[in-house]
Amino acid sequence: MSLLVEKTSSGREYKVKDMSQADFGRLEIELAEVEMPGLMACRAEFGPAKPFKGAKITGSLHMTIQTAVLIETLTALGAEVRWCSCNIFSTQDHAAAAIARDSAAVFAWKGETLQEYWWCTERALDWGPGGGPDLIVDDGGDTTLLIHEGVKAEEIYEKSGQFPDPSSTDNAEFQIVLTIIRDGLKTDPKRYHKMKERLVGVSEETTTGVKRLYQMQANGSLLFPAINVNDSVTKSKFDNLYGCRHSLPDGLMRATDVMIAGKVSVVCGYGDVGKGCAAALKQAGSRVIVTEIDPICALQALMEGFQVLTLEDVVSQADIFVTTTGNKDIIMLSHMKKMKNNAIVCNIGHFDNEIDMHGLETYPGVKRITIKPQTDRWVFPDTKTGIIVLAEGRLMNLGCATGHPSFVMSCSFTNQVIAQLELWKEKGTGKYEKKVYVLPKHLDEKVAALHLGKLGANLTKLTKDQADYISVPVEGPYKPAHYRY
Amino acid sequence: MSLLVEKTSSGREYKVKDMSQADFGRLEIELAEVEMPGLMACRAEFGPAKPFKGAKITGSLHMTIQTAVLIETLTALGAEVRWCSCNIFSTQDHAAAAIARDSAAVFAWKGETLQEYWWCTERALDWGPGGGPDLIVDDGGDTTLLIHEGVKAEEIYEKSGQFPDPSSTDNAEFQIVLTIIRDGLKTDPKRYHKMKERLVGVSEETTTGVKRLYQMQANGSLLFPAINVNDSVTKSKFDNLYGCRHSLPDGLMRATDVMIAGKVSVVCGYGDVGKGCAAALKQAGSRVIVTEIDPICALQALMEGFQVLTLEDVVSQADIFVTTTGNKDIIMLSHMKKMKNNAIVCNIGHFDNEIDMHGLETYPGVKRITIKPQTDRWVFPDTKTGIIVLAEGRLMNLGCATGHPSFVMSCSFTNQVIAQLELWKEKGTGKYEKKVYVLPKHLDEKVAALHLGKLGANLTKLTKDQADYISVPVEGPYKPAHYRY
Amino acid sequence: MSLLVEKTSSGREYKVKDMSQADFGRLEIELAEVEMPGLMACRAEFGPAKPFKGAKITGSLHMTIQTAVLIETLTALGAEVRWCSCNIFSTQDHAAAAIARDSAAVFAWKGETLQEYWWCTERALDWGPGGGPDLIVDDGGDTTLLIHEGVKAEEIYEKSGQFPDPSSTDNAEFQIVLTIIRDGLKTDPKRYHKMKERLVGVSEETTTGVKRLYQMQANGSLLFPAINVNDSVTKSKFDNLYGCRHSLPDGLMRATDVMIAGKVSVVCGYGDVGKGCAAALKQAGSRVIVTEIDPICALQALMEGFQVLTLEDVVSQADIFVTTTGNKDIIMLSHMKKMKNNAIVCNIGHFDNEIDMHGLETYPGVKRITIKPQTDRWVFPDTKTGIIVLAEGRLMNLGCATGHPSFVMSCSFTNQVIAQLELWKEKGTGKYEKKVYVLPKHLDEKVAALHLGKLGANLTKLTKDQADYISVPVEGPYKPAHYRY
Amino acid sequence: MSLLVEKTSSGREYKVKDMSQADFGRLEIELAEVEMPGLMACRAEFGPAKPFKGAKITGSLHMTIQTAVLIETLTALGAEVRWCSCNIFSTQDHAAAAIARDSAAVFAWKGETLQEYWWCTERALDWGPGGGPDLIVDDGGDTTLLIHEGVKAEEIYEKSGQFPDPSSTDNAEFQIVLTIIRDGLKTDPKRYHKMKERLVGVSEETTTGVKRLYQMQANGSLLFPAINVNDSVTKSKFDNLYGCRHSLPDGLMRATDVMIAGKVSVVCGYGDVGKGCAAALKQAGSRVIVTEIDPICALQALMEGFQVLTLEDVVSQADIFVTTTGNKDIIMLSHMKKMKNNAIVCNIGHFDNEIDMHGLETYPGVKRITIKPQTDRWVFPDTKTGIIVLAEGRLMNLGCATGHPSFVMSCSFTNQVIAQLELWKEKGTGKYEKKVYVLPKHLDEKVAALHLGKLGANLTKLTKDQADYISVPVEGPYKPAHYRY
After folding, report:
1. What does the entry list as the binding residues for NAD(+) (chains A, B, C, D) (predicted)?
2. What is the mean pLDDT of residues C324-344?
3. B191 vs A: CB within 8 A
4. Count of A-D CB contacts under 8 Å
5. How far is CA A421 from CA A202, A260, A425, D22, in A?
6. B298 and B370 inside one domain
7. Any idea what the Cα angle at residue C411 is, between residues C408 and C413, rounded to 5°?
8. Looking at CA atoms only, how far is residue A282 from chain C in angstroms?
9. B159: Cβ contacts below 8 Å, ≥ 6 apart
10. pLDDT of C163 over the 90 cut
C-alpha cells in the first residue's frame, strides 16, 4: 500500500484497505454489540457524563470487529481516538473501514509489512501539534516500546548529538523502529519527550506486554503509570483460556480444513492459553501432548489426562504443533525438519519468535508454496516433504480466523474501559506512580457481573450473617487477592 | 450465471464459476490426498487394472475438495465422469475449477439458483447421443429422482400424449423438475427410458436419499439396483457423527463468530448427525438441549447429560438452534417469532425443509439483512428483533464452511468407490436386483483398516484359538450384521 | 458354607449367607424401586392381571439389589421364582437375604466356590417332582448350558449306558458340571429331558450368553426358544455402555482407592463395554490406550482421541489394565510379568478367562497377598514387584463394587420382563421356534419411554404429516431394524 | 467407646476401634506409599539427617491411609507424633490401628461422638508433663481453636477467677469445648499458656482453617506462626480440585449406588472444590446446575456449560445436591422440604453447617431411617417422601468413602512436611512472626516436580537465553506470585 494518509469528508485521517467494506463492518459491529454486554453497559452507565471529554486515546490492538465496539465505547464516553493494529495479520478490513468512516482515525489493514506496521503505529501516536495522546491502550507493548525507545534516543541525541543507528542491530524489526525514531528526531528532537510528559498512562492487554512492563518497573525505566489489564481475572482466565479454546480450532479449520479428531497434537506451554488450546484439541478428538518447563503446570496437564513430554520426544509423530509459551525459540528448524509430511505448525502466542521462521525461510533449497494467504506449505529439498505453517508464525487465530469471539472480548475490553477511566479520573492526583497496577477486585467482579445476564444466570445473594461468617462484605469483593480461581 | 456450457481445450464440457481458481484448487486437492488414505489406497490397489474402463459415471454430490479426490480416484480407475453438486451452496469453486480443468466434466458453483441447480443436474446426466451414465453416485437422491420422474412422465406421455404440468404443484422446486422433464420430452420422448435401461446402478451417500430408495423399493417403483453407502458403519457412524462434530462449529464460527461457550443450544434430533452436533456444542462450553421423537435416542441424550425438551419449551431461551432430523417442518415461523434477538437458526440435515424458510420469507414486513453471503439477519416488523439464519436454511456446514474434513470423507468415499466397483463388476450377472443393498461387512472393515495407519494405530491380531472361541474368521468380519458399534 | 438347603417359616427353600441382613436388603430394595421406573411400570400395568400365574421361573443372574426388584416384579406378576447368581462374587448378601425371606427361593452368596456355584445353579433349576422351570432368565448361559449338557449326557447314557466322565476334561469348572450331571443321571436318567420338554424358553441377558445361543442355533443344537435381550438397544447400548461407565471406576475406587487421574490405562476391547470403560477412565483424567482386533471399533476409538496399540506395545508403561473383550487369553502371564509394580489388572467381561489367572496362580514362587477380599497383590519372585488383581479376574464391577446402578438395570430388566411375558403368552402357539429372537423395536422403544419421565424429559410428537414424510407410524417404531443408534 | 487410653507393648498411648485391623492397614499403607512419591522422596532426602529429632508433633487431620504415610514420614524424619482425626467420620480404622501399633499415638475412630471427638483432640495435644507439642499439623483449625480458647479462658480465670460457662452458648459443640477447657483449668490453670509458649507453629491444611487464621491475624489474636499449606498451588489447585473430582462420585456411589448419568445435580459453590465436583458430575453424565455468590466464579461455570441459578430456582427439580461453599446455611430445612422424593443431599465442605441438620433433625414428626452407616433417609410426615442425607451432613467423601486418593494427597502432604520442616528449622530465628505465611514458590514447584516421574512425564528445560528472555532463573521459580494457574 502506498503510505499516504487519507481523510474522511469530516477531515479525520485514516489508512485502511477498502473503505467500501464499511457497511459490512457496520453490520458485524451491530451483531457484536449484542454479544458484548459489558461494553454496552459501560456506554449506558458512563456515556451520558462523557467522562473522557478532552481525552485523546491512542490504541494499538488488533483492529477487529470486537475492537471496533471497544473504540466506539471510548468515543461514546467522550474520547477522541486514533488506532492501529498490534499485529500485521490481525486487522479485519471491514471493521477498520467502518471505524475509519464513522468513529476514529484508523491505520490498519490485514497483511501489513513490518515497515507498514510501524508506520501505522507511528500514525496512531501522532496527534499533531496539539500533542497527545493522553492515554494509550496497548497490546503487546509496541507503542509503549516506541515511546521508551524514542525518549532514550532523544536523551542520547541531546547529550551526544548522535542519531540512533539502525544498522547497530541484527533484528530486522528493531531496525525499522530505530529508523522511525531517527527520522522523527530530525524533525523534532523532543517528540517523544513531549509525549511522555503528556501521557497519563497506559493500560496493557496481554501477558507479553505486561512482562515487558514489569521488567521496566524492575529496572526503574518505566516512564508512566501502567495498568495491567491482562491479570484481571476476567481477562486472563477468560480471554486467554476460553477465547483460545474457541479460536484455535477456528483458525485450524479455516486455514487447513484438517480433521482434528484422531490426530496427535502437541501444545507447547500449558498456561492459560495452552490450557485453552489443549482443551479444544482434546474435545475435538485429538490426542494431545503437552510440553512444559514449569512442573506445576505440567502436573495440571497430567491431571487432565495429557501426556507431558519434550518436543524432541514427539516431533516426528505429531500432526499438529501449537506454540503458546510467550517465550522464544520453541519450534526450531531442526524440529521442523523431523516432522511428518504436512504436519501443521502454528503459534498462538503474542509474538512471532516462538517458531524459528527465520531458520525456515533461509534454509537452503526450501520451497514455499502459498496455499492461500496465511497458509503456506514449506517443502524441504532433501525429503521433498513439507510442513504447513500458519500465519507466517504469527498469532494464527487472528491471522487465519477472526480472533476471539465478541463475548469473551467484552470481558477483556470492559476491563480496558475501566482501566482507562481510572487513569483519566486520577490524572494529576498522584494516585498512580510510574508503576504497574492491577485493577481492584471489586471492579474485576463487576466486569463479570455485567456478563451474567446475557447468559441467563441468577446469582445467589449472601445474607449478612453468611457474609460475616466468611468475613466478606455482602456486596463483595468475595475473595482474597491471592485467590486463584 | 449464463447457462452456457463451456469446453476445455481438450473439449471436455464444464460450467464453473472461475477457472482461474484451478491452481488453488489443485493445491488443496494435493493436501487432501494426504488426508484421504482410503481413496489413495484404492488408487494404488485398483488403479493399474483400470477396472472402470468404459464406465461413464455421473455424480451428484457436493463439489468440494474432498469430492475432487473421489472424482480423481474414479478417473484413476478408468472411469469417465460428469459431476454436479447436490446443494446450491456446497460447491467449493476452486475445487470445481481444478476438476473441470484436469479431470472431469463439472457443472457446479457456489450459490446456484434452483433453476441453475437442476440445469447442472441435467447436464451431469447428459452423456450425449452415446448414452449414459452407466453408474450414478448420488447424494440425497436428486439424480435418481429425476430419472424416476422422467420415466414416469414418459410413460404417461406414451400412453396419453400428455406432458407433465409444472403448474400442477405448489412446490417451486418440483415445478422446475417437471419443466426440465417436459422440455426433454419434447426433444426425446425416450430419454429417461434409455437412461434407465443403460444404468447399472446407483450408490447413495446419505440418510435422506436412502430413505427415498427404501420407499421406492417398498412400493416396487425402484428402477435399478442401489447400494446404500450411508449405512456402512464407516460412513454413518463416522461421517455423520464425527464429520458434523467438526463441521457444525466450523460453520457457526465462520458465519457468525459467535462465542459458543455459555450459550444455550437446541439440537433438534439426536441421530448420528444430532449426536455429533450436540457433542461439539457441549465440548465448546454450550449448554445443550435436545429435542427428539424417538424415546431411545432421547434416553441416549439424557445419559450424556443433555436435557430433552420440546422446541416449544425452550424456544424463547436458547441462543442457537440446529436442525438435524431429516424430517420437515421442525422450526416454523411461529417458533422463530418467539426467539431471542439474534438467535442463530441453522440446519445441517440434507434438505432445506427443516426450517420454514417459506414462512419466514413471506411474513409481512419481515426484513432481510444480508450480513454476508449465507448469513442473513431477518428482522420482524413487530418486535424489531431479528434472528440470524445460516445458508438460507440449507446445509450450514457446506454453505457457511467447507463441509466435513478430508479424513472422515475418505471413509465415506472409499465406500463409494467400493460400491461403484461392485456394481460395475457385477453388471450383467444378475447379482443385484432392483433393490437396495448394503456393502458386506468385510468391506466395511476394510475401509476402516485403510484409515488406521495414518493415525498411527496398531491393530491386535486374533489367534486362531481366539477366533474359534468367538466363532469368527481370524481375518474377519468380526461382528454379526446386527451389531450396532 | 455347608451345602444344606434351609427353609423359611412358610416352607420356601433358600441358601444365603446371613438372613439377618434381610432388613438392610429391604431398605435398599425400596430405594432401588424409585430408580427403576420401567420395572415399577410393569408392575402397575401387568400386576393386576397376574399374567405369570402358574409360571415357574428359574433365574441365574447376579443376585443384587437390582435383581431383587426384577424378581419381585416377576412375583408381582404371578410367577413363582427360584434364583441363583451367575457369578461367584456378584451376590449382594443383603439382597439375597431379603428376597429369600420375602419373595423367592434364593441360592446365592458372595464368594462362592465353583463347587458351590454349580450347586446353587442346580438348586435353582430343581423345582421338585412337579417339574419345572417353565421359563429361564439366564445371564451368560450357564443354566442353559447345564440343561444342554444334561440332555446330551442323558442321550449318551440312554444309548450306551455311559456316564459322563469329569476326568475327560482339563477344565476344572467343566469337571464340576459333568460331576453334577453324572450324579443327577444316577437319580433320574431323564431329568434334563423332562426339563427341556417343559421349558417354554429362555431370555438371555448378556453378550457372552447370546453368542453361545447363536452358536447352538447355527449348529442346530438349541433345545428351546430363546430371546436375546442383550441386543435390545435399551440393553446393550445402555447397560453395557453407561452401566460400565459408572461401575468400572466404582470398582476401581472401592478395590484400590487409586487415583485415576494422570494414570495410563489400557482398555482391551472397544465394544459397548469397552466404550463405557474408556469413557469413564478418560473423564477421570486418565490417558487411555485401547487394544482392538476390529478395525471399525479401532477407528471409533481413534476418533475419540484414544491411542490404539497392542498390549505388547504398552504393557510395561501402563498403570491400569481392563479387559472387556468377551474373548479369552487377553492378558497372559507373560504380560503380567512385564508390568510396572502395583499395576492394576482387572476384567469386566462376563467370563474370567480374559485374564490368565491359571498361569498367574501356578507361576513358581509367586506370592499372593490378599489386601482385602477381591483385591489381591501378586508378587513375582524374580522382581519382587507385584501386580494387583481384582476379583480374581472375574467381573470387577460386581466383585469389587455393586455392579451397575439401578436406573440402567431397570432398562435391561424391563426387557427381561417383557421377554418373559412374551414367551409365556406364546407358549403353545408355535410363534417361537428353537431359535434366537430379539424383541420387536416397538417394545424396545417402550422400554425407553418408560424411563424418560424419571429424568424429566419431554418427548416431541410427530405430526401425521411428518410421520408420513419419513414413512413411520406416528406412534413408532421410528427406525429401521438396521439402525445403529 | 469407653474413653480409656490404651497402651502398646512399648508403652505408647492410643485409642482406636480395632487393633486387629493393623495388618490390613499396613498392607494398604504399603500400597499407598507407591502412590505417594512426594512423601517417599522426603524420606529419602531428609530421613538420614533426622531433622525432626526432638520435635513433638500433634496432628489433627483425617486419620486415613494417606495420613498414615504422612505420619510415618514425620517419624522417619525423627519426630515423635500424636494424632487425632479432624472429623468424626473420616477415620479409617485399619489405618489408625496400623499407626497406633507401629508408629505414633493415635486417638481416632470412625463414628466418634462430638464428645469423643474433642476428647481425642485433647489427648493428641497432651504430651504429658514434659510439655508439647512443638508443632501442629492442623486441618480445619480445631486444635488451633482449642489452644486459643484455652488461653483466652485462662486469662479470664487469672484475672477474675471465673471458669468458662458451657451453658453460655447454644452451640452444642462449643459447649463441649468450653467444658474441656473448664475441666483442664481446674487441673492446671496455665495448661494452654504453656502450650502456646512452647509451640513453634502450625501448618494448616484447608480453606476453612486458613480463613480462621487470617481472621485471627487480622484482629491480632493469633498466638503463634502459621503456614497456610492450603494455598500452595500444589495443594488447593490439586487436592481440592482433582481430589474432589475423584472422591465425590466415589462417596455417592458407595453411599447410594445411584446412577449419576441423566440426573440433575446442584453444586453449591464453584470454588476449587465445587469445580472438581461439577466436573465429576458432568463427566458422569449428569446435568449440573451451579449456585454461586461470586460473579467471577459464576461466569467460569457458565463458560464450562453449567447453568447458574439459585437453589430456590431448582430445588424441586434436582436429584443430587452437593454443598462446597465453606459457608453456612446453604441448604436449609425449607429447601429440603421442597425436594423430590429420595433426593440426595450431601456436603463436601469442611464443616457440617452447610446443611441445616439441626433443622432437619428437630422437624416435628420427621423420621430417620438409617439405610446403612452414613446413609440416612429422612421422611417428612406431611408428604411421606424422603430425602437421603449422607454422612449426617459432614464431609461425604470421607464419611461415605475413603477421601481423596493417595497420589493427590501426596502433593498436599509433601507441602505439610516441607512446612513443618521450615517451621522447625527456623524456630528461634524470628523468621516467622505470629502471622500467616505461604510457602515460597520454588518449594511449591519442587512438590510438583516430585510427582512427575510417577506419571511418566518429561519436563522441558529452559535454555539460559530463554530464561533471560522471560526474566526467570533457569531452575525456577517460573511464575510471578500473582499467577493463577
Report:
1. 206-208, 271-276, 292, 348-350, 397, 404
2. 98
3. no
4. 174
5. 11, 43, 6, 66
6. yes
7. 110
8. 7
9. none
10. yes
Are both A375 and A421 inside the same structural domain?
A: no
pLDDT of A129 above 90:
no
The mean per-residue pLDDT over the stretch D299-305 comes to 98
Sign of the dihedral through C-alpha C150, C155, C157, C163: negative
Kind of pairing between the strands at B436-437 and B386-390: unpaired
Give the start-end residues of each E strand in A194-342. Answer: 201-204, 226-228, 264-268, 287-291, 307-308, 320-323
Domain-embedded: residue A454:
no
Instruction: Based on the fold, state whether residues C389 and C409 are members of the same structural domain.
Output: no
Residues A103 and A71 sit within 8 Å (Cβ to Cβ): yes
Q: Is B244 a catalytic residue?
A: yes
A454 has a chain D CB within 8 A of its CB: no
User: Residue D316 in contact with residue D385, Cβ under 8 Å?
Assistant: no
C-alpha cell at C453: 419421565
Q: Rounded to an integer, what distance in angstroms lies between the CA atom of residue A240 and that of residue D241? A: 21
Q: Does residue C321 sit within a domain?
A: yes
> Is residue D303 located within the same domain as residue D172?
no
Print the domain residue range for B329.
Answer: 259-349+352-393
- C48 and C140 share one domain: yes
C300 carries an active-site annotation: no
User: What is the rounded distance in angstroms from the CA atom of residue D149 to the CA atom of residue D155?
Assistant: 10
Q: In 3D, which of C439, C446, C454 has the Cα closest to residue C407?
A: C454
The C-alpha torsion from D274 through D276 and D278 to D284, rounded to 10°, is: -160
Do residues A356 and A336 touch, judged by C-beta distance below 8 A? yes
Return phi, psi of residue C320, to 5°: -135, 130
CB D355 within 8 A of CB D378: no
C-alpha count within 13 angstroms, C-beta hemisphere, residue C96? 26
Indicate whether D468 belongs to any domain. no
Q: Which of B257, B260, B261 sits opposite A402 (nearest CB)?
A: B257
Q: How many domains does chain B have?
A: 2
Give B-chain residues touching C461 at CB under 8 angstroms.
Answer: 293
- A235 carries a ligand binding annotation: yes
- What pLDDT score was predicted for residue D131? 83
What count of other Cβ atoms lies within 10 Å of the Cβ of residue B374? 23
Label the pairing between strands D375-379 and D367-372: antiparallel
State the pLDDT confidence band at D2, using cuts at 50, 70 and 90. confident
pTM beyond 0.90: the answer is yes
**Burial class of residue D372, CB neighbours in 10 A (0-12, 13-18, 19+):** middle
- Helix C295-303 vs helix B441-450: crossing angle, to nearest 10: 50
DSSP B221: -
One domain, residues B180 and B263: no
Decide if pLDDT at D166 tops 80.
yes
Cβ burial of C10 (10 Å; 0-12, 13-18, 19+) is: exposed
Q: Is D286 on the interface with B (CB under 8 A)?
A: yes
d(CA B62, CA B110): 10
* B38-58 pLDDT, tens digit each: 999 999 999 999 999 999 999
Question: Does a structural domain hold residue B253?
Answer: no
Q: Which amino acid, C455?
A: L
Active-site option among C15, C17, C62, C335: C62
Interface probe with C: pick from B309, B460, B478, most Cβ of C within 10 Å: B460
Handedness of CA D140, D141, D142, D143 (dihedral sign): positive
Q: What is the pLDDT of residues C441-464, one digit of tens each?
A: 999 999 999 999 999 999 999 999
Do B54 and B190 lie in one domain? The reply is: yes
Instruction: Give the domain-ending residue among D330, D360, D393.
Output: D393
- Whichever domain contains C109, its CATH number is 3.40.50.1480
Between strands C56-60 and C80-84, the pairing is: parallel
Do A175 and A323 share a domain, yes or no? no
- Across B237-262, average pLDDT: 98
